[in-house]
């Protein structure tokens, strides 16, 4: 009987921990990139509905790639459009591998995830739909090895 009680408490604590951690996530989504590669003209679009304003948030771009990605670094162009139609353009470079070719992201098997802090402590001042449009900025017309690209917005701590 005592073991059952402890098991129930552990399960309840685990569920509470999961609920507490996910409460900070405002938005999270991924777009799959075709197996043949990411075409230079293809844009991954994310429409994010922001309802809570005035709260500092971290906006991250999550890059999933596999072992066929041929470079150490990764360039991307990100256009952010606010609900009032204003668009800002950013050019971001990040590193997916160190100087020895070891992948920096976390992963299992041959797929790695690299979170990139895009906009730290961003305060959304207007409620409504924000559009994040991401294109790769590499020289390849068809970029191999990127499997998914994602946007994640978390409440800043």
From TrEMBL:
It comes from the Bacteria. InterPro entries: Motility-assoc_lipoprot_GldH (IPR020018). Residues 1-24 form the signal peptide. Coiled coil: none annotated. Keywords: Lipoprotein, Signal. PROSITE patterns: PROKAR_LIPOPROTEIN. Pfam families: GldH_lipo (PF14109). The keyword Lipoprotein applies. This is Gliding motility-associated lipoprotein GldH. It comes from Paludibacter jiangxiensis.
């Amino acid at each position: 009987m005592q073991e059952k009680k402890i098991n129930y408490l552990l399960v309840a604590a685990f569920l509470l921990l999961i609920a507490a951690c996910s409460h900070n996530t405002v938005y999270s989504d991924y777009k799959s990139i075709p197996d043949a590669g990411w075409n230079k003209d293809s844009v991954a679009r994310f429409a994010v509905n922001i309802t809570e304003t005035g709260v500092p948030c971290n906006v991250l771009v999550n890059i999933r790639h596999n072992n066929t990605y041929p470079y150490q670094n990764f360039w991307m162009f990100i256009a952010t459009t606010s609900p009032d139609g204003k668009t800002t353009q950013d050019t971001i470079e990040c590193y997916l591998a160190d100087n020895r070719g070891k992948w920096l992201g976390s992963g299992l098997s041959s797929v790695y995830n690299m979170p990139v802090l895009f906009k730290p402590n961003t305060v959304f001042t207007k409620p409504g739909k924000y559009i994040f449009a991401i294109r790769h900025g590499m020289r390849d017309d068809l970029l191999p090895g990127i499997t998914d690209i994602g946007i994640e917005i978390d409440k800043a701590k």
